[in-house]
Design a protein that fits this description.
Distance between the termini: 25 Å
Shape: globular
Number of domains: 2
CATH architecture of the largest domain: 3-Layer(aba) Sandwich
CATH superfamily of the largest domain: Vaccinia Virus protein VP39
CATH topology of the largest domain: Rossmann fold
Length: 191
């Protein structure tokens, strides 16, 4: 994680946290992952101005199409004034979309940076930083997950561990900023 993505000191929320625990409060709609709070980003059960930072990483593409602005408004409501949002989502580049099996079978969406810009601006956020990262090894990891990890998780309920050498390659790949990377990163402040 680069210094520009480190959340500010304060009380943090991760929305769509799944099995990762990266915030003070971890929220997910999936009860089986045992979040601190089971809730939808479309109706968060938190008071206004509760958090200084919100992580919204690789979630927006799973929401019902057309509900993205509602989710961002709900996150904004829970953020303190000048609070920080960190949002990531897949980049809408034809090669990445073609290699994303979840796109073909599960409606997993990819976004152009301009769409995220518009959504953030329309919902009261100011973009502080943005970049893309990840490329070849991210696509390899996605294909392995879809054809190996996902079936194992579906049968056993347990996600198999990450392959160590692949994790190392992914970490190296994600340490570089690319204009055409797989993952779009946005850091935004609540106006």
């Amino acid at each position: 994680m680069t210094a520009s993505l480190i959340p500010p000191v304060g009380f943090s929320l991760s929305v769509g946290s799944n099995i990762t625990r990266m915030a003070d409060v971890n929220c997910d709609i999936e009860v089986w992952v045992r979040p601190d709070v089971a809730a939808s980003v479309l109706s968060l059960p938190f008071r206004e101005n509760s958090f200084t930072s919100v992580l919204f990483t690789d979630v927006i593409e799973h929401l019902p199409s057309g509900s993205e602005a509602k989710a961002l408004c709900e996150i904004r409501r829970c953020l303190a004034t000048r609070g920080q949002l960190i949002l990531t989502t897949p980049n809408d580049i034809a090669l990445f979309t073609a290699c994303d099996a979840k796109f073909w079978v599960g409606g997993h969406r990819h976004y152009k940076p301009e769409i995220i810009h518009r959504l953030l601006n329309e919902t009261g956020f100011s973009i502080c930083n943005e970049f893309a990262s990840g490329w070849l090894w991210q696509m390899v990891e996605m294909l392995i997950y879809f054809f190996v990890g996902f079936p194992i998780r579906a049968i056993t309920g347990i996600l198999p561990p990450v392959i160590p050498f692949l994790e190392e390659l992914l970490n190296k790949e994600y340490s570089l900023k690319r204009r055409d990377g797989y993952t779009l990163f946005f850091v935004a402040k609540r106006d």
